[in-house]
Design a protein that fits this description.
The protein is an alpha+beta fold. Helices cover about 30% and strands about 25% of the residues. The strands form 2 sheets. It has a 4-stranded antiparallel sheet, covered by helices on one side. A two-stranded antiparallel ribbon has the order 3-4.
């Protein structure tokens, strides 16, 4: 089975404030469905109040991030699924719940992860 990243940037989720609670409930329902199906690996949203840092091999920590990931934010789910088509089906469920398109990416297979 392959692990898939299903994600969206925070800015893509343009939901009126009064509907945010319903979106959260709908998204949690999809997460619960994925857990019950045995597909759920991990998920969550990036906490934008915690600034990113870079950590070198010697443990040195410095503020900042790679330039190409400076805008990394939003919601992420990792599911382990039998096919790309199944990942697209789950992405559609998350898209409906979160009211925004979802990006699907496959992880390289690693037999020990």
């Amino acid at each position: 089975m392959t692990k898939y990243l299903i994600s969206f940037p925070g800015a893509a989720m343009d939901v009126p404030v009064g509907e945010l609670e319903a979106v959260g409930e709908a998204a949690r329902a999809v997460v619960l469905e994925a857990k019950e199906a045995g597909a759920w690996v991990f998920g969550g949203g990036i906490d934008e109040s915690v600034p990113p840092v870079m950590v070198d091999g010697d443990g040195t920590v410095r503020e900042g991030t790679y330039p190409q990931t400076a805008q990394l934010e939003g919601g992420y789910s990792i599911l382990e699924l039998p096919s790309y088509e199944a990942a697209v089906e789950w992405a559609a469920k998350f898209a409906a719940a979160c009211r925004c398109p979802q990006e699907v990416r496959a992880f390289h297979y690693d037999p020990i992860s």
